[in-house]
Amino acid sequence: MTRRTRKITLSKIMAPAVVVALALPAGTAFAAQPHVVHTSAVKTDGSGAYLVGSGMYDITGAAAETGMLGYAASQEVDGLHMRLYSRAFVVADQKSGKRVAMVTTDMGAMFPSITSAVVAKLQQKFGDKYTPKNVLIAATHTHVGNSGMSGDRLYQVAGADSTSAGYDKKNFGTVVNGIVESISRAHTSLAPGTVQRSEGELKGATRNRSLPAHRANKNPGSEVDSSMTQLEFRRSNGQAVGVLNWFAIHPTSFSRKFTKLSGDNKGYASYMFEKQMGGDPDKAGSFVAAFANSAVGDVVPAQGNAHSAPGYGGSSDEYHNTHVAGEAQLGKARQLWAAQGQAQGGPVDFRSRHIDLRNYMVDAKYAGGKAVQLCKAARGFSFASGGENGPSKIPGMYEGMTRDSFSISDKIKKVIPSALGGLTRLAFAGVSALHQDKCHAEKPIPLPTGAWKMVSSVVQVQLVRVGNTAVLALPVEPTTVASRRLQERVAAELAGTGVNRVVIAGVANGYNGYLATREEYAAQHYEGASTEFGPFEFAAFEQEAAGLASAMKKGAAVSDAASPAGSFTAKTPARPGVLFDSKPAGQQFGQVLGQPSQSYSAGQVASAVFRAGHPKNDYRTMGSFLQVQRQEGGQWKTVRTDRDWDTTYAWKREGVAFSRATVQWRIPKGTPAGTYRLVQTGDWKNARGGKVSPYVGMSRSFTVR
C-alpha cells in the first residue's frame, strides 16, 4: 500500500492549461543544408589520435504509481514496456589530453539538478577530469519516461502523478547514479581507437507540425531536416565500440494515453542496433548505440500516434506506430554503419557558459540593429493548446492566439463556439490581465512562469568538438529554422578550423522550453508561445553560440556569466513509498492467477497474470521484472527480459494493498518452435517490520508452433 493524498494548489487548479498543455513535444529537424555546415575538410585516417570508450546503465526507476514527463497529461505509470538507459561515450585527445563525455538518456528532459549531481559524483571518483564544461548530458525526449527529477516547479507539476506529488528522491537518485555509472564504464573502457562520421538522408519519416509558423520565416527552406549524422567508434584493431546518432524526430510514437515506461522510437532503434551487434548492458565494453535527438521543436513522426490531432494521427496500435518510426531510424543508421564514414582528425575541445536569460542583453548585431533585453519568463495562450502530437483539447484554446487576435468570444472562430470555451478564455484572461508584459510583444500571457518562480532563468550553452565535428548543446527545443540558423552561425565562426559539420543537441544539460525564430514567435504557435524569455530569445542563443565558437577558434577561455542552477528551487510533496504488500488468504506472492494458453503462433501475444508485490519495493535496476524462458535440453534458458522490445510488464493495484502483475510476450516472427514459460520476479514488503523479500512466479509451459 502507498499513501495516496491529494493536495489542491493554484498550480493544480491551473493544471488543465499548464499540465495538459505542457506536452513537451519534441523532435525538430535541423533542416538539411549540408553546404551550410561544411567548411574546409581535413583528410586524415584518424588512427591513434583518440582514446574511445562506451558504457550504458539502467535509469528506469519506479515502474508504477509515479508520473510521466512529456505530455503533461497526468499519465500515471502502471508498468514497463522497455527499460530506460543512460548511454555514454568518452573521447580523449591523446595529444592534448582533453576529453569529453557525451551522454544520451532515455528521459523526457534533462535538468541542472541532475547534471550538477552527476558532475559532483564524477569528481569524487575521477578528480577534475570531468567538469560541467566537458560533460554533455542530453535527453532523447521520450514522452513516456519517468518524472520527479526537476528542480523547477513547472516541470514538477507537469510530471505529477494523481496524488499531486511531483518530486521523487529515489527516482532522482536512480537517474543520477545510472548516468554516473554509464560514464564510469566509458571511462574505464578507454582505449586507442578511431572516430568516423557518417551522414545521410532519411526522408519521409517526419513532418512539420507548425507549417504556418515555419512558412512565416524569411527563407524558410525545407519543412523538415531529413539529415542523419552518426559518430562511429571503433578500437584501433577494428572492434566496434558504438554509435552516437542524431536525427530530429519527436519520440511521441506512443501517445498521451500510453502508461508503460518506454524509450519510444529512439529507444527501439537503440535496442535493436545493440541487439544486432551483440550488445549486452550487463557486459563491460559491450556495443552501445545512442540515438540522440537534435532540434526538438516543430517536427513529429510522419506515422503519428494513436491520439494525435486530426490529420496527424497514426494507427490505433501504439506498438506499430513506434516500430515504424524506430525502424526507419534503425535502417538508416545501419546503412551508414555499413558504409565508410569520414575519419575524424583534429582536436577534442569544448567551451561552455552559464548565462541568466532574465534581463539578458542582446547586442544590436543579433537583434536587428538595436540592442535589446530579454523578458521575464512566461508562456503564451497557444501553449495551452498543446502540440498536434499531444493536443490538450482544452476548450477555446488553439495555436496562433496573439495579443491582437485574442478575444473572450473568439473572434477568429478557430474553435466551435461554446460557453465552456468562452469561460476558459475568460479565466485565462483574468490571469493575463494581471501579468501582461509588453516585453513579450505578440505573446498574451496566461502563465507567468518567471513571476511565479516556476522556472529557473539560468541556462548552460555548450560547444563540443570531436575532430571535424562540432556539437552545439542547448537546453531548449529549437525549431527547424532556428536550428539551421544556429548551425550557419557556428559554422561561419569555425571556418578554417577543420570543422566541417555542426550538429545540434537539443534538450541538453537543462530544459527551458522552446526556441523559435523571431518570425515564428510572432505567429504564436505552440513553439513560439513556449519560447519563454520573449521575442529575442533566439538572438540571445545565437549570440552565445557565436561567442563560444569564436573562443574555440581562438583558443580563448570563456567564463560563466551566472552561477549554475544546480539545486532544487522548489519541491512538491515527495511521492510516497510502499507501506506494505498484502494478498488474499490462501494465496502466495508469485502465484499464477491466469495461465497462458497451451500453444501460440508467431504474431500472437502470450500472457500470464501473477499475484505480485509493488514494483517500488525494488526497482530491480539492471535486473528484470519478467523472463521469457525456453526449454533446452531439460533446462530453462532465459530468452527475453523486460528490456526487450516485445515484452511488457503491466502492474495493477487491487484494493488497498494487493497487486497483480501481467507478463506479456508479443511473439515475433522467426521465434524458434519449442516449449516456453513466463516468469515474474518481484519483491513484497511485510507489514510487520517492513522487510522486503523477493519472490518468483512461473507459469505453466506452452508451445510456440
Automatic annotation (TrEMBL):
GO molecular function terms noted in the UniProt entry: metal ion binding; N-acylsphingosine amidohydrolase activity
Cofactor field: Zn(2+)
Record-level GO cellular component terms: extracellular region; membrane
Occurrences of domain Neutral/alkaline non-lysosomal ceramidase N-terminal (ranges): 50-543
Catalytic activity: an N-acylsphing-4-enine + H2O = sphing-4-enine + a fatty acid
Enzyme Commission no: 3.5.1.23
Cofactor: binding comment: Binds 1 zinc ion per subunit.
Stretch list, region Disordered: 191-228
Keywords: Hydrolase, Lipid metabolism, Metal-binding, Signal, Sphingolipid metabolism, Zinc
Record flagged with keyword Metal-binding: yes
Similarity field: Belongs to the neutral ceramidase family.
Record's protein name: Neutral ceramidase
Gene this protein is translated from: agac
